[in-house]
Design goal:
Layout: H1 2-29, E1 66-72, E2 78-87, E3 92-95, H2 100-103, E4 112-116, E5 119-123, E6 129-132, E7 134-135, E8 142-146, E9 149-158, E10 198-199, E11 209-214, E12 222-226, E13 230-231, E14 233-237, H3 244-249, E15 251-257, E16 260-265, E17 270-277, E18 280-283, E19 292-295
Antiparallel strand pairs: 1-2, 1-9, 2-3, 4-5, 5-6, 7-8, 8-9, 10-13, 11-12, 11-19, 12-14, 14-15, 15-16, 16-17, 17-18, 18-19
Amino acid sequence: MIRARLTAALALALATSALAREAALAQDSAPVQESARPQEAPAPAAAAPEQPFVASLPRDIAGVPGTWDLSRDGSTRRCVLTLSGVSGPAGRRLSFPAGCRRALPILNHIAGWLFADGNLRLVDKDVRPVLQFSTRVDARSLVAAAADEHFSLVPLQIVAMVPPTDAVPTSPGAGYAGGGDAGAGSAAPDARSAAAPAAVPAGEGPAPGSYALDRYREQDVCRIELTPGTAPAPVRILDNCRDGGLTVFDPVSWRFANGHLTLNARRGHMVNLVAAGDGRWRRDPEVGTTFVLRRVDPAAP
């Protein structure tokens, strides 16, 4: 009896040992699972292509006419000059608001402009250079020295910035009327900009209708109506206008392009305005007297 039990126990032990060896062999022979490959880092996003440089300075005299911002470096003194393509007693004509003479006294000596040897010059009544400009390194503005001061001249809206149109002549004086100081600010329009009428963009520009003119100390000194239509659309000065500067300026048409509302005068000058919120449009740049157009209800007194 005892021998039978011992024999059974020994057989069980041998069987258990055999199973353990088989399990070990099976584990050793199992294929090794490859570790997960690390995720490759995403390729860096391609850098946005640089915007091409758009030349804005004139290469010849034909590209000069238009509006320029003249400022004295290191100060807030500035003025908008209108360089016309029309010949005058001292080179070609220029004009600027009367207040510019106080802001920049050097303008008291300037009577015209020339373009020679690739450079722009502002000259006196005897055609002697007062400010001789050269191109800055950034090729976006001009600089000139006078005594211990330096002046910058930046194009605002000139012929050189307008895409060429084959159907319109490109002579230096095309589209520019002579003009003196304009009470509402002045700038000579480019004939090419009016050659191809375009609809006023909906939802971007000023809504056609009545606008009140606000000055620095007075509001609603005059009202004008921006008539709907294709650019340039008509402008009408409404009755009881009490602003002499606007009546002398005598706007006859308006247009909206590149974020600017432009009023064109009968004599060829123009004033540019930008949105100031709440239906208001202010002169840009802000030089001379305050000039703000404010949208009003035509039925309002």
